[in-house]
Amino acid sequence: MLVHLAIRDLVIVRELTLDFVPGMTALTGETGAGKSILIDALGLTLGDKASPSLIRTGCERAEVSSEFDLSDCPDALAWLREHDLDEETQCQLRRVLVREGRSRAYVNGRPIPQSQLRQLGELLLDIHGQHAHQSLTRPAAQRDLLDAYAGNAELRQAVALAHQALQAAREEYRSLREASTDRHNRIDYLTFQVDELEPVTPLAANLASLEAEHARLAHAERLQQEASEIALALVDTESDIGSQLGRLQRQLVELAELDPELAPLGELLESAAIQVDETGQALRHYRDGLEIDPARLQALDEQLGRLHELARKHRVEVPELPALMARFREELDTLADAGQQLGQLRARVAELEADYAKAADRLSRARRRAAKRLSQVVTEQLQALNMQGGCFEVACEADPDSPARHGIDRVGFLVTANPGQPLAPLAEAASGGELSRISLAVQVATADCGNIPTLIFDEVDVGIGGAVAEIVGRLLRSLGERRQILCVTHLPQVAAQAHHHLQVHKQARKAQTETRIESLDPEQRVQEIARMLGGVEITPQTLAHAREMLPAE
């Protein structure tokens, strides 16, 4: 609910702060005192269009902020969480108007676009009167209110889930069908790529081995020649390294007989001579087994060239070619099965269409039953609100060709304020005062259903008086037991029913006019009700009448 409003330099308000409480609050004052400024200020914080003309004369900027307690408004809390703007259960809206430039909007201190501010505002407060926040004139709000009145939450959830599943299946079917349009061309392309890659895939997997063999064959003559030279130096001549090591080792053995400390050195030379001999033998074996094979070298050249050519073509590295071919083959298999999948999806869509139609039909029948009850209740309320002959009807027409997540029904509130006149949409058929009374009748009939915690009725008493005005006041008071109600009124019968009372008055200060709003205590309320009762002079009888009108607390 609304808990605080602060206004600075807006129209004729220099500075004003107001605290609000639960229940019904009446806002009264002389004509032209500035009661509409409060409504305009709240509208600005809820996303209404701003104009520099609203800035107080002589000032460069105006600022309005409102604060709401969201303990009783889960929809607004969910919206704030969705947009990462939540701060526990408090919500502060601020609007800054500048004479040169665009207005700025803030939620909990963070800037947001005006469009988002309007979305949030529609969840927090509803203004019934000749203002933009009249939610009952919007088809979506009418449908939601009918569903709340009917208790259709589970049926709507079932329809929404069925619609979501149907839309997902239709999208999958559409995508697969569009893909199948070029399926044959794609299959031909993939088949060619797989045929091209398949022979070289084993080669790509053994790239390191192929490159090693290619390097060996490419340098076979040098390897043979130099292997022979090394073997010759090691073991194949009388003066080779092996023979020299053997002579030196035998010499050390003889010296070790003279000094045993040389024995280990002799063993080392003996080991070195053995390793030199083994190396020489291995080199001879390697040289004899090495072949010069130009045909094999040419084949390797062609294979490696093909691998690198395909890698460049597909913009991958050679070792990635096997994985690429696997992806091509997988897509080829998927496309080959596309015809079967299309048939399965087509059947699935038909099944889900039937499920949605059943769920939507159940919701539609529940809506039509509730529409009859709500039409009758609101029509009865209209008669009590001095709209004799007025008629209210909730139209609920099914349109199976236009399925949506909220069902197949077009819901509309139709009304005629005068006997003999045709029913017309609520937004078109009523004047400002009539619209406020119709809204009041609807709100009373659906008092336990609405989700918006704060309602403002702007001059709901236009064109009524006497006993009807008292009925309006009692209805508003009754609503105030469930919601927070703010009522702008000129009638003492309505104001007297309020739980709380705010008075608007103008005062001149330093050649400027300012609007002020103050909360009235019980005795001040008596004085204000007496003023509203009229007369040049407030007499003791007028005061006594005013006291009688105020309900006992």
SSE layout:
Elements: E1 2-10, E2 13-19, E3 24-29, H1 35-45, E4 61-69, H2 74-82, E5 90-98, E6 104-107, E7 110-111, H3 114-124, E8 125-128, H4 139-150, H5 153-181, H6 183-197, H7 201-205, H8 207-218, H9 220-235, H10 241-258, H11 263-289, H12 294-314, H13 321-336, H14 338-384, E9 391-398, E10 409-416, E11 424-425, H15 426-429, H16 432-445, E12 454-458, H17 466-480, E13 484-488, H18 492-495, E14 500-509, E15 512-519, H19 522-533, H20 540-549
Parallel strand pairs: 3-13, 3-14, 8-12, 12-13
Antiparallel strand pairs: 1-2, 1-4, 4-5, 5-6, 6-7, 9-10, 10-11, 14-15
Helix pairs in contact: 4-14, 5-14, 6-13, 8-12, 9-11, 10-11, 14-16, 16-17, 19-20
Looking at this protein, list some descriptive labels.
six-stranded mixed beta sheet; six-stranded antiparallel beta sheet; 553 residues; single chain; alpha/beta; 56% helix
What does this structure look like?
56% of the residues lie in helices and 17% in strands. It starts with a strand and ends with a helix. The chain has helices spanning 35-45, 74-82, 114-124, 139-150, 153-181, 183-197, 201-205, 207-218, 220-235, 241-258, 263-289, 294-314, 321-336, 338-384, 426-429, 432-445, 466-480, 492-495, 522-533, 540-549; strands spanning 2-10, 13-19, 24-29, 61-69, 90-98, 104-107, 110-111, 125-128, 391-398, 409-416, 424-425, 454-458, 484-488, 500-509, 512-519. It has a domain at 185-336. Strands 2-1-4-5-6-7 form a six-stranded antiparallel β-sheet, with helices on one face. Strands 8-12-13-3-14-15 form a six-stranded mixed β-sheet, with helices on both faces. The chain has a three-stranded antiparallel β-sheet with strand order 9-10-11. α4 packs across α14 and α10 packs antiparallel against α11 (263-289). The longest helix is centred in the middle third of the chain and has 47 residues, at 338-384. The protein is an alpha/beta fold and 553 residues long. The chain is built from 20 helices and 15 strands. 32% of the residues are buried.
